[in-house]
Amino acid sequence: MAQDMADTLKHSSVTAFAARSVTPVHTLSGENLQRLSSNSVADALRYFSGVQIKDYGGIGGLKTVNVRSLGAQHVGVFFDGIKINNAQNGQVDLGRYSLDNMEEVSLYNAQKSETLQSAAEYAAGSSVYLRTKTPVFTDKPFNLTARIKGGSFGSVNPLVRYERKFRKMSMSAEGMYLRSEGNYRFHLKSQYEDTTGRRSNGDIRAARAELGLWAKPFGGDLQAHLYYYDSERGLPGPVVRRLSDQYAAKDRQWDRNLFFQSSYRKTFEKWAFLINAKGAYDYLEYLSDPAENTAAAYTHNSYHQKDFYGSATVAWYPLDWISMNFAFDERWSDLICDVRYFNYVQRFDTKAAAAVSIAYEDLSLQGSLLYTRVQDITKGQADPLDRLTPTVVAGWRNGQGTMVLRAFYKSIFRSPTLNDLYYVLVGNARLRPEYARQWDLGFDLQSPASWGMQTKLSVDAFLNRVTDKIVAMPIRSQFRWTMMNFGKVHGSGINASLSGSTAFGRTKVNAMLSYSYEDAVDLTDPEAISYGGQIPYTPWNSGSMVLGAGRGPWNANLSVLYTGKRYRSADNTPENLLDPWMTADMSISRDFIVRGYGLNLAMDVNNILNQQYEVVTRYPMPGINYMIKITVKI
Fold first, then answer.
1. Which of 123, 172, 414, 600 is the most exposed place for a label (fewest CB within 10 A)?
2. Rounded to whole angstroms, how far apart are CA atoms 55 and 38?
3. Does the pLDDT of residue 609 top 70, yes or no?
4. What DSSP state is assigned to residue 534?
5. Backbone CA torsion sign across 125, 126, 130, 136
6. Three-class DSSP category at 593
């Protein structure tokens, strides 16, 4: 790989908002990302303001992200610039994606304000970007890293990464294995109960293999990635009936995920182009056996998804201060499952986007228009869906770059998933798309270079309006549910972030603070008891703090998360109120040089206050736990 690409990865930082973005963006990158006491991408995203993570507990528990209460289906997740798709249920389990291979994790509200992006990147209310590590070589043509982690709950996690530089390209290969029993102790206490127990059926066995390739054919940049993930896990279920064995969940789930993707971009004097391609296969098997859990009905189903995606984007720069972006995406997905009476379904998802960006002196403007067509082919298929949705972004930066003012409006929708439309006894082929409109007004204040330290304050006020919200509702009885458009949510709030870094002699210190206030109310039915109440699992107040310090070979990190009171149901009654919680994680590491090889010893202690809490009600989270890491670099 050419050196100019590798040089961009030699520095690391903790930054609340990227300097050149007009829309709000949070970023964690480099060594500071790796030093967090986190196992997955979902763990890292918790430190960004405006983010709620639904976590069902343990290393193997399902983890999904919700930004500004729009819902997980309105969040696009992009792996090296290409979207991870799940046509079946629209959600991406971020617990599958380890931080080991990540160079940067970013969260954009609305969309990126840069040119040369695919149509899919205009099609989400918020976007998570996962950028994998690019090999960096110094005095030898290869790098070898071996690491092993082990700790609480029988967790063992070895990893090997090999990087090689060739004459005109570079590659990386990485393999990881994870085993954890997930049998942590917990304590649930409320005015109605006081229960102590040990989590069961929370084990996981998972393996991941990745192969990356970087090259510069014909003067452009080519990147390709092969990814494979295989896991078996227990689904522990909620804690009910005071741990009666009759209600102990024994459900199992198997996952296999394989994808290959590549992208090629080339820049000329007045224009540039980007081509993306991806093929993916997902397999999920689920087992619920009454022989193990008498409260369950026997279920043993498997689901197969295939996904093929292609994208072509052209950017044109007719003048120094104006650029135009034209993008076309085509995606084909299908779903096969052995659920009785389920009919095979295919989905064609076509997107086209046109955008104009103006950067004249201190003013930046961007307008984009996205066309989406979704058509399914199956028995009893839904009508084709055609929509146009606009976005307008404006920003102003003073000449010194120490102040930025910004605003955006974005109209977006999410089409019903295949489960929403066609799942047996639940699906509703007459569903309308779920619309979300977003308004944002914010500013950045950055310290001048003369201060000798870097600080940045970012504040955004936002309004959201969600209509035709897709929800599951009972029909005729509590035993028969279906998907319906029956929802209206109004949200408003403030996201604030403060970051800074400085040095005291040989000691380097960095910090990131974030705070969110959010009022998201259900305005669906004026006659309902839930009318005007805060929507489930959305706290009014939440925040985080990350403090890092390094001196010579020593590094230490302290991270704190706080989630205020919230309700587990749209009925904001006292019995549905969930207590606030706060956790603190700490890590410390030291670098050594042994016979010319790099050695790092690290220890993470998570939840050092042994806080007993729930992110999702009845799914208790682990108390204090630890992980010891040994890393060797050759």
1. 600
2. 13
3. yes
4. B
5. positive
6. strand
For residue 439, give the 3-state DSSP assignment: strand
The answer to whether the beta carbons of residues 389 and 372 sit under 8 Å apart is yes
Residue 617 sits at φ, ψ, to 5 deg, of -60, 140
Task: Kindly state the helix (H) or strand (E) to which residue 109 belongs, with its residue range.
Answer: strand 102-109
Query: Per residue in 143-170, pLDDT tens?
Result: 999 999 999 999 999 999 999 999 889 9
Exposed/middle/buried for residue 527 (C-beta within 10 Å: 0-12, 13-18, 19+): exposed
Burial class (CB in 10 A: 0-12, 13-18, 19+), 416: buried
How many CB atoms sit inside 10 A of residue 612's CB? 18
Phi and psi for 219 in degrees, rounded to 5? Answer: 80, 5
- Bridge partners of 556, per DSSP, are 549, 588
* pLDDT computed for residue 14 by the predictor: 40
CB 22, CB 366: distance < 8 Å: yes
What does residue 57 show for φ and ψ, rounded to 5 degrees? 100, 135
What is residue 248's predicted lDDT score, i.e. its pLDDT? Answer: 64
pLDDT digits (tens, 9 = 90+) for 22-66: 788 888 887 778 777 677 888 888 889 888 887 776 676 678 888
Tokens 């066995």 found at: 205
Q: How far apart are CA 531 and CA 533, in angstroms?
A: 6
- Residue 481 or residue 367, greater confidence: 367
250 confidence band (pLDDT: 50, 70, 90) = confident
Contacts of 220 (CB under 8 A, 6+ apart): 264, 265, 266, 267
Count other C-beta atoms under 10 Å from residue 173's C-beta.
Answer: 15
Q: How many CB atoms lie within 10 A of CB 292?
A: 14
Query: Distance between CA atoms of 587 and 626, rounded to whole angstroms?
Result: 9
Distance CA 547, CA 511 (A): 5
Task: Report the pLDDT value the prediction gives residue 406, as an integer from 0 to 100.
Answer: 95
Sign of the C-alpha dihedral computed for residues 313, 317, 320 and 322 taken in this order: negative
Kindly report the number of other CB atoms within 10 A of residue 518's CB atom: 25
Phi-psi group of 96: left, alpha or beta (phi > 0 → left; psi -120 to 50 → alpha; rest → beta): alpha
Q: Give the lowest-confidence range in 50-64, 148-162, 363-377, 403-417.
A: 50-64
What tokens appear for 87 in the block?
A: 């046509």
The predicted pLDDT at position 295 comes to: 59
Q: Which residues of 35-61 are buried (b: 16+ CB within 10 A; e: fewer)?
A: bbbbbbbbbbbbbbbbbbbbbbbbbbb
What global pTM score does this model have? 0.90
The predicted-structure confidence for 500-556, as pLDDT tens digits, reads as follows 999 888 999 999 999 999 999 999 888 888 899 999 889 999 999 999 999 999 999
Read off the tokens for 576: 């549905």
Band of residue 238 on the pLDDT scale cut at 50, 70, 90: confident
CA distances from 27 to 13, 33, 109, 448 (A): 9, 9, 12, 21
Cα–Cα nearest to 12, from 618, 634, 501: 501
Cβ atoms 90, 72 nearer than 8 A: yes
Residue 37: name the closest of 567, 559, 612, 571 by CA.
559
Pick from 286, 230, 222, 231: nearest CA to 253: 286
